[in-house]
Design goal:
The complex is a heterodimer of chains A (about 425) and B (about 500).
Chain A (H helix, E strand, L loop, with lengths): L1 H30 L4 H24 L7 H19 L1 H24 L5 H4 L1 H13 L7 E4 L2 E7 L2 E3 L1 H26 L7 H21 L2 H19 L2 H21 L1 H11 L12 H13 L28 H34 L3 H25 L17 H28 L5
Antiparallel strand pairs in A: 1-2, 2-3
Helix pairs in contact in A: 1-2, 1-3, 2-4, 3-4, 3-13, 3-15, 4-15, 6-7, 7-9, 7-14, 7-15, 8-9, 8-10, 9-10, 9-14, 10-11, 12-13, 13-14, 13-15, 14-15
Chain B lengths: L1 H28 L1 H6 L5 H7 L6 E2 L5 E8 L6 E5 L7 H4 L2 E2 L3 E2 L1 H5 L1 H4 L5 H10 L6 E4 L3 H11 L4 E6 L6 E7 L7 H10 L8 H4 L9 H11 L7 E3 L4 E3 L2 E3 L9 E3 H6 L3 H11 L1 H11 L18 E4 L2 E2 L8 H4 L6 E2 L2 H12 L3 E3 L4 E5 L5 E4 L4 E4 L3 H17 L13 E10 L2 E10 L6 E10 L3 H17 L18
Helix pairs in contact in B: 8-18, 11-13, 11-14, 11-17
The chains are: A mainly alpha (about 425), B alpha+beta (about 500).
Chain lengths: ~425, ~500
């Protein structure tokens, strides 16, 4: 126990150093002098992390020691970037981080055994689907950039997809844990509607998402998570391929019929056409220009061109969707690769948790949560680097956004709970060494 | 299930590797082409954060400086032109939403301090990048004199130092106030008189008889002719099987080349051109710089080559050309004032063409000279003897021929008039000249659009006033005002 947690504590030190150095660099580029504010930020962030560490030490002593520092690293990086964009935003993001930490603690505190979630699976699934379609509700929902992603609850804007992704994974993990035997052994033609039905429902839901939410990004995220789970559960590529084929067919169908999706694809293929580049293609074009400006090492924290002389930002959504472009701009290919690597390490640790877990549900839950995290990273980073069409999802832990931070802290809490459960006995058997 | 999880992790590793590959693509591999993309305003915006260097005249007069706007965060610099419209076309302008022109464009790298790589790195590290100041060869007194002499008539004056190629004056009328470009660009651009158009380097005019000095240069340098060679000045001589008239149908007998130039006899020079032939004429034209953009430090898109223009652009020896009429500046010959100034300058410099240049040196903000622009010899166009012979012929033009209105007190001037008819009573008036003969300090070309008189009447007096200011002499030839009584063509 001591060893794992000690490792966690030590890993938080570079995180604190990063956040301090980052703030110092941003402040330096602004005022040519370091004031104590940067140290305050670093100290406060370190304080929060140490608090979380002691909480984990008390409640999840055997959980994976790398996941939390990696999340903290990404969050610290995001906080520095957001601070660089707008101090007020960074203050809000820090608040969201505190709230996220509170929810993290609440999740760990209330959820003694994650297997109790299995019993609630239909409730969770229904709640998630309701959440997803809420932005279409008049009054609280609304369209942004052609997609329905957010709802307004008074002063707070809320992105339900961030939470729905966790709910859907819980449901799928629990459902597949139960039916995987049938899916694995059964021959495809003999599979009854009873077993296949829910899968068709999921496919239909993803298609509906595409039509109603009009967002390729989130439906890719959900369906990708679903396929990943299906593969982990069955190890049958045929089923996964069939699912992927169905999604691709559906996406292709909607891409050629639903105007919004169609536009996204044509912008993706050629964003530099005259007129397009000033309009729908502006985001992706500016994203690429910002990256080109970064080069190998970047301009340095706080040094990239962001503010337009007449007000406004040259890089749109620099704090949310396009934060990766700003990262490439300021810390270059090397810094951005480090961020991608941090995400890959998080994914590796998440899958490690899944592999150590002993029951099917735990394995599927951890694998699903990890997969959905990784897919989200791929969808947004791939979007801003023009690997795939750009769609609006956040870069987990890094982007500005209350829903994103809070939901991902809950995701982290669930992963750690599963990890604690999986490693408790192992650690006990090995005599306290992880 | 664990095996599947490992496979899944492998897939994500692959996908993340693709992300890194694409990031490398934009940030490094294709960064340059993205930076050059016309939709990318970053380079311009970045430059706006750098205090652009001053543009200075020959005497230190500030022609362009930068005004700081905004606070620390939004700090930017906006160009200001204290000399208003005096140097509009030469200096051009540089504004974020209107782009750049003139020296502002061609010397942008120096003005934003990009000239020296090492200095750039040092400046990047210290965080304070500043542009170099650009000292030019432009002479406000000469420029002012030329502008005043044109007196609002559309046209152009270009004055060059023959031995260095330094441009002392470049006037194009109508001009514009570069300070008004940010707000008034659309209006200026739509103006029917084309004030943004640099007539000195972009306008293609028929050169009229000024072109006879090119023919004369070819004739003398080829060795087939001397200034004393006799040619026929008969009116209505057939040239390319079509009778050619002299100015006002004047009839001449056998004349020397000197007389033929002094009196600007068309039929004599057309015969010289025909005897030299297409290839010799075109060869000498090319040597003077015809057929390509002048090697001057202005943006290429603001330069036009001079030459014989067919429907699809410049013609060469393989095309059907009436070389006799080309030799007297007719046919489809079109020239820029800068090209004609280069012709005069070459003859003045004993046959060697120097590249016209505006930049004299660049100076770092700390006073260090970062670059000097040495005179750049383009080529020898004609032998020194031929050039001296042609100088004597051109001196005769000013002393007793069509160019007497350009005479100066105590200073001998060599020149040639030109009058291209563009309609009934409407001419393109020309005068090319250099002075003092024997030790030329300045060569120039003057042209006036839609003139009601000849080159000798309209353009030569303008040349005289500019020469007077540059050489610091008083006018002569009995003409303080208006064209000389003997004003020719």
């Amino acid at each position: 126990m001591a060893s794992a947690r000690l490792r966690e504590l030590f890993l938080l030190i570079p995180v604190a150093l990063l956040v301090t150095a980052g703030f110092a660099a941003v402040l330096l580029s602004r005022t040519d002098e370091v004031n104590e504010l940067s140290l305050t930020y670093g100290a406060a962030f370190l304080g929060l992390c140490v608090f979380a560490h002691f909480f984990i030490r008390a409640r999840l002593p055997d959980a994976d020691p790398y996941l939390f520092p990696l999340a903290a690293l990404l969050a610290a990086f995001g906080l520095v970037m957001i601070y660089r964009i707008d101090e007020e935003l960074a203050r809000q993001q820090a608040q969201w981080f505190v709230i996220g930490l509170a929810l993290f603690c609440a999740t760990v505190g209330l959820l003694r055994d994650h297997r109790s979630l299995e019993r609630l699976r239909y409730t969770i699934a229904a709640a998630s689907i309701v959440l997803l379609f809420m932005p279409r509700l008049p009054g609280i929902g609304g369209q942004v950039n052609g997609a329905y992603l957010a709802i307004n609850l008074g002063p707070v804007e809320f992105q339900p997809a961030e939470f729905a992704k966790i709910g859907i994974i819980i449901f799928l993990a629990s459902y597949l844990a139960e039916t995987r035997d049938v899916l694995v052994r059964g021959r495809v033609p003999r599979l009854s509607l009873k077993h296949f039905g829910p899968l068709l429902v999921i496919w239909g839901a993803a298609m509906l998402l595409l039509v109603f939410i009009r967002d390729l990004g989130s439906s890719l995220m959900f369906f990708g998570g679903f396929l990943a789970l299906l593969y982990v559960a069955t190890s049958r590529l045929s089923i996964v391929a069939a699912g992927a084929g169905m999604f691709a067919a559906g996406a292709y169908f909607f891409a050629s019929t639903v105007g919004h999706v169609q536009d996204r694809v044509s912008i993706w293929l050629d964003p530099f056409r005259p007129k397009v580049v000033e309009d729908e293609g502006y985001q992706i074009a500016q994203s690429l220009f910002a990256q080109a400006d970064g080069g190998l090492f970047g301009t340095g924290f706080g040094r990239a061109l962001l503010d337009l002389p007449g007000g406004g930002k040259i890089l749109p959504a620099a704090d949310t969707d396009l934060i990766y472009s700003l990262i490439v701009n300021e810390v270059g290919l090397f810094g951005a690769t480090a961020v991608v690597l941090a995400c890959l390490l998080f994914t590796a640790r998440g899958f490690k948790v899944a592999m150590l877990a002993r029951d099917g549900f735990s394995k599927l839950l951890a694998a699903g949560l990890t997969a959905v995290f990784a897919i989200q990273v791929f969808v947004i980073v791939g979007g801003v680097t023009r690997v795939i069409p750009l769609t609006g999802v956040t870069l987990p832990f890094v982007s500005y956004g209350g829903s994103s931070i809070v939901a991902n802290m809950v995701l982290l809490a669930l992963l750690l709970i599963v990890s604690q459960d999986a490693r408790r006995d192992t650690v006990a058997k090995r005599g306290g060494v992880a | 299930m664990n095996r599947s999880i490992v496979h899944l992790f492998g897939l994500f590793t692959l996908l993340f590797a693709v992300l890194v590959v694409f990031t490398s693509r934009w940030a490094v591999l294709e960064a340059e082409s993205l930076e050059d993309n016309i939709a990318n305003r970053r380079p311009l915006l970045e430059q706006q954060r750098i205090p652009r260097g001053l543009i200075l005249a020959r005497d230190g007069t500030v022609m362009a400086d930068s005004r700081r706007l905004g606070t620390r965060e939004t700090r930017r610099f906006v160009r200001r032109y204290p000399t208003d419209s005096l140097f509009s076309h030469a200096i051009g302008y540089s504004f974020i939403d209107r782009g750049q022109s003139g020296l502002e464009q061609s010397h942008n790298d120096e003005l934003v301090g990009k000239g020296n790589e090492l200095a750039t790195i040092v400046d990047e590290l210290s965080g304070a990048r500043e542009g170099d100041n650009l000292r030019t060869t432009l002479d406000p007194k000469a420029q002012e004199a030329a502008r005043r002499a044109l007196g609002g008539r559309r046209g152009s004056v270009v004055a060059i130092e023959p031995d260095t190629g330094r441009v002392r004056a470049m006037v194009s009328v109508p001009d514009f106030d570069p300070n008004a470009v940010p707000e008034g660009f659309n209006q200026l651009n739509a103006d029917a008189s084309s004030p943004l158009f640099n007539r000195a380097t972009q306008a293609r005019y028929p050169p009229g008889s000024t072109f006879k000095v090119v023919t004369a240069a070819a004739a003398l340098d080829s060795g087939d002719f001397t200034p004393e060679t006799a040619v026929s000045g008969k009116n209505n001589k057939p040239i390319s099987a079509v009778p050619l008239q002299n100015f006002e149908g004047a009839e001449f007998g056998q004349v020397t080349l000197t007389e033929a130039l002094t009196k600007s006899i068309n039929t004599a020079w057309a015969e010289v051109g025909e005897r030299l032939g297409d290839s010799t004429m075109l060869r000498y034209m090319r040597r003077f710089g015809f057929g390509s953009e002048p090697p001057v430090d202005l943006p290429r898109n603001q330069l036009a080559p001079s030459g014989i223009y067919g429907e699809d652009g410049l013609l060469d020896a393989s095309d059907d050309i009436d070389i006799g009429r080309v030799s007297i500046g007719q046919e489809r010959l079109q020239v820029t004032p800068l090209q004609m100034a280069m012709v005069a300058s070459t003859i003045a410099n004993e046959g060697t063409l120097m590249a016209p240049v505006f930049a004299e040196r660049t100076i770092a903000p700390d006073g260090r000279v970062t670059d000097r622009y040495r005179p750049d010899r383009v080529r020898r166009v004609m032998g020194a003897d031929a050039a001296r012979g042609l100088t004597r012929m051109m001196t005769s033009v000013v002393e007793e021929g069509s160019g007497t209105a350009a005479q100066l007190q105590g200073v001998r001037v060599a020149g040639k008039t030109g009058t291209a008819e563009r309609g009934a009573g409407v001419n393109q008036a020309w005068f090319v000249a250099f002075a003092p003969v024997g030790n030329p300090k300045i060569a120039l070309a003057v042209t006036v659009e839609q003139a009601s008189g000849t080159g000798g009447e309209i353009a030569a007096p303008i040349a005289r006033r500019v020469l007077q200011v540059i050489l610091g002499t008083r006018g002569g030839g009995g003409s303080g005002s208006g064209p000389a009584a003997s004003g020719g063509f």
